[in-house]
Amino acid sequence: MQLSRNVPRFLGSCALAGVLVAGVLAPIAMGAGVLSNQVSDSVDSISASLATSEQPLVTTVTDRAGNPIATLFDQYRLPVTYDQIAPTMTAAIVSVEDRRFWSEGGVDPKGMVRAALHDSSGGSTQGGSTITQQYVKNYLINVVDRTNKAAQFSDRADTLARKLREAKIAVQLGQTQSKQDIITGYLDVVEFAGNVYGVGAAAQAYFHTTPDKLNVQQAALLAGMVNNPNLYNPYTHPQQALQRRNTVIDDMVTNRMLAAPDAAIAEASPLGVVDNGPDIPSSSCLGAPADAGFFCAYAESYLQQAGFSADRLETGGYTIRTTMDPVVSQTVKNAVDANVPTTQDGVANTFAVISPGQNTHEVLAMVANRNYGTDPAQGETSTNIVSGAGNVFGAGSSFKIFTSAAALEAGKAGLDTPLPNPGGQCFTQPGANRYTPPYCIQNDGTYGDPISLRDGLATSPNVAFVNLEQEVGLPAVLDMARRLGLRNTLNTNDAGATPDPKSSSTQYNEPQSQYFQNKLSFTLGDSPVSPLEMANVSATLMSGGMWCPPNPILSVTDRFGKPVPVKQQGCEQVVPPGLANSLEAGLSQDTITGTSAQAARAAGWGHQDIGKTGTTQQSESVAFVGGVDNYAVSSMVFADGPHPAEICPGTPVHLGSCGHGAFGGTVAAPPYFHAFSQLLAGKPDTGIPQPDPAYLNAR
């Protein structure tokens, strides 16, 4: 009975083997039938895809010194050459998968007939495919059709058309590529368990070694896995993996590639894989070091805006050399962690550093006490609070820089111009009607009335600057903020997010550039802001009024080491050099006689610099924006938890109801003094530009 049931299957299997052999070796024998058309129509296009589709490789992100800081990938693959693969590995894979590999063509007619006979007997199905055919199949699944589930299903389909197509392409490869290239390509493309692809990555992930150093038992384990990576996973199915490994070793003996005594020793050894593996690096910027995560994420988004898709970055095998300075980055990271611990409840401290310049503004550091990650309990956040408008409470009086620059440009005031500055004043908002309440503010402290713009920048009276803002006009102030650096910030809404056209509230459906056209509070910095862009405001001034986008990229090279162009936004001369130099001079007293002077003295600070502090109304955010030598900086401390409250000074800085909340000079400036006292130790000052006489008085 068993024989009679298997007769049709036997005959069908033999016919299939015959068709495959005849179809591959003598295509004309196929005639002009539908099957022949199916195969012929697809072989050429697939062969072309195999030739042009590059394997997904790992992209490496480095700092400016070339030290890796992160890897980006979809498939963890480390390509190798034939000479970089141990003979034990090629012997193992040939023994278990295709023992006639070195002598056959792209297909093995004997293997096809053997598989057909075996299948007809009712046993487990045997593919009868050669390593070359498996190479074709795996390349289609893992490379060409990687993102096309339907095509992958077709690549795996147990159909005559698929097998014949695969075999015909294998013959083509056998005629055009060497055996060494084919087996190398196969070992580079096959999947191992755990998102590991290729023997280079597998050797590292499972054994912490390179493929040229694989011993017999290691090579046999990996060779055995390719048949079924999940079933023979040494971590989830160790017994099956061990049995499969030893089967491969036996096959190596049978194939006369290993002596029996050596096989016995290898089979007696344990699996020997690394603990808790496979050991695979993080596939995103979430795996970057604590001082590099936000920088890496910004570099990735910067390249995406320049035209690199996320998939391209994850598969291109690029080397992305960033502008991150490892010394500066680690130093400022240490400074903010000392100021506000990583896990401090509800308080974030961001810090950005940019190098000014006429042709580029290179970003040197982007850090926070928070780390870039997904575990809030460990003080992590997956939101880039350094590059985005992550400080939703604002940068306080540091926004007075924009009002001052607009006034200098319009001739409404110069550095020595006396500004009216009563202790308190009520203002009529632009565009107000009789139902609009007045905007009333007071100075926080005692100031001269009038007060010069120069002294006002150092001591920061509110009334004087709101008066000046009203005289200059909010459109001019907002435009100046955009020109100097708040390009992305002003495109967000008053919640720091993309404007929502579905909202009925202007607070959420309008960009800040529109929302604040009639709100005199803008100069007091009560709006969401990007810490990185505020550092770039300083960089623009320190570059003689030349704005450039904050650039995190030094170079990109492809998998072959060739440079890849990166589309860059051009620099713009946004204010005259004389205005920029004059405003720098006006900002040069903050650490000497101004709002951060006390903290500067406590830190033993003695460098010439520029600075402007900021504190919001309820002390939910404080800031220091400035620069020294060739470093433009912003340090911001702000509430970032679900229950924001007043920020209080102390060791550490914390949330509370202290009655004398934090100020920019007392809480945001100290990390700046801490970090740059170390970075500039023993270096001479570069000095501050002299003001242009044209900007000393109103015109």
- Runs in which pLDDT lies below 50 for 5 or more consecutive residues are 1-20, 23-35, 118-127
Mean of residue pLDDT values: 91
Number of strands: 23
Rg (C-alpha, Å): 34 Å
- The quaternary structure here is single chain
Q: Profile the largest sheet.
A: 6 strands, mixed
- Secondary-structure content class: alpha+beta
What is the helix content?
A: 40-55%
Form type: elongated
Number of helices: 25
Question: What does this 3D model show about the protein?
Answer:
With 699 residues, the chain is α+β, with helices and mostly antiparallel strands. The chain is built from 25 helices and 23 strands. The protein is 41% helix and 13% strand. The protein has a six-stranded mixed beta sheet with strand order 16-8-7-21-20-19, with helices on both faces. A four-stranded mixed beta sheet has the order 2-1-6-17. A three-stranded mixed beta sheet has the order 3-5-4, with helices on one face. Residues 1-20, 23-35 and 118-127 have low confidence and may be disordered.
Essential attributes:
699 residues; elongated; 13% strand; disordered N terminus; alpha+beta
Spell out the blueprint of helices and strands:
Blueprint: H1 2-25, H2 34-52, E1 59-62, E2 68-72, E3 76-77, H3 87-97, H4 109-120, H5 131-144, H6 149-156, H7 160-176, H8 179-189, E4 191-192, E5 196-197, H9 199-207, H10 216-225, H11 238-254, H12 260-268, H13 293-305, H14 310-315, E6 319-322, H15 326-339, E7 347-355, E8 361-368, E9 371-372, E10 380-381, H16 400-410, E11 418-419, E12 424-427, E13 439-442, E14 451-452, H17 453-459, H18 462-472, H19 474-484, H20 506-509, H21 512-515, H22 531-542, E15 546-547, E16 550-551, E17 553-557, E18 572-573, H23 577-586, H24 597-602, E19 609-615, E20 621-628, E21 631-639, E22 646-648, E23 654-656, H25 664-679
Parallel strand pairs: 1-6, 3-5, 8-16, 9-10
Antiparallel strand pairs: 1-2, 4-5, 6-17, 7-8, 7-21, 11-14, 12-13, 15-18, 19-20, 20-21, 22-23
